[in-house]
Design brief:
Elements (H helix, E strand, L loop, with lengths): L8 E2 L2 E2 H23 L6 H8 L3 H7 L3 H25 L5 H18 L1 H8 L6 H22 L8 H23 L6 H16 L4
Antiparallel strand pairs: 1-2
Helix pairs in contact: 1-2, 1-3, 1-4, 1-6, 4-5, 4-7, 5-6, 5-9, 7-8, 8-9
């Protein structure tokens, strides 16, 4: 008994723990379906079939399928941002080295998990809320790049932020071409190339 409530266990796990496990399983299934078959395959029926859960458990976690997709997008960007930030943090004090390390980590993360690039580049036209979320997360990456290049600029001008967002879009396109090239260079080489471009684009404006 805790605070007048009884916490029953099932197989040694509380109801809350089992609910959390179902949420993780549903999100994993959605991510796998997106990676294997595309966004159109991410449906309530599809994720329930993959997890062997009834739709009752899906609706216990999400009101609509778009909520699950949104959470997947947020999770992917959180992973990418964390990888970039950590790589930049341990790269030393040189902005070029920090940005190269961060962008290289971004690329390596995308190669390590096939789902990441597919999620980053999927057409979200049918999901207006998701498209807005992806844009906001791309702006976050753009601000991180600006903070690396010009740490003294705490509140960048709109034109500078627009240029950084433009740079993030360019890096994404470079990454798509890079992954499609059987004779591609290393992630580190492309990271350095992308950094040079970002520095040329943003350095004079910062």
């Amino acid at each position: 008994m805790t605070n007048g409530q009884t916490h029953r266990t099932y197989g040694g796990k509380t109801r809350e723990q089992r609910r959390d496990e179902r949420r993780v399983a549903l999100l994993r299934a959605g991510r796998e379906l997106w990676s294997d078959k595309g966004l159109a395959a991410v449906t309530v029926r599809g994720v329930c079939a993959r997890t062997r859960l009834t739709d009752r458990y899906f609706y216990e976690q999400f009101e609509v399928i778009g909520d699950l997709v949104l959470q997947i997008v947020e999770d992917v960007f959180a992973e990418l941002f964390a990888a970039m930030a950590e790589a930049g943090r341990v790269a030393g004090d040189n902005p070029h080295a920090q940005l190269t390390a961060g962008l290289t980590a971004y690329l390596e993360q995308s190669v390590a998990d096939r789902a990441v690039l597919r999620i980053l580049t999927s057409d979200l036209a049918g999901y207006p809320g998701l498209a807005a979320k992806r844009r906001s997360l791309q702006h976050r990456v753009a601000r991180a790049i600006l903070l690396t290049i010009a740490p003294e600029v705490s509140k960048p001008e709109p034109a500078l932020l627009d240029a950084a967002v433009f740079g993030v879009g360019g890096v994404t396109l470079l990454m798509e071409d890079w992954l499609a090239d059987e004779n591609r260079c290393s992630a580190g080489e492309l990271g350095a190339k992308a950094t040079d471009m970002c520095m040329r684009l943003l350095g004079p404006l910062a």
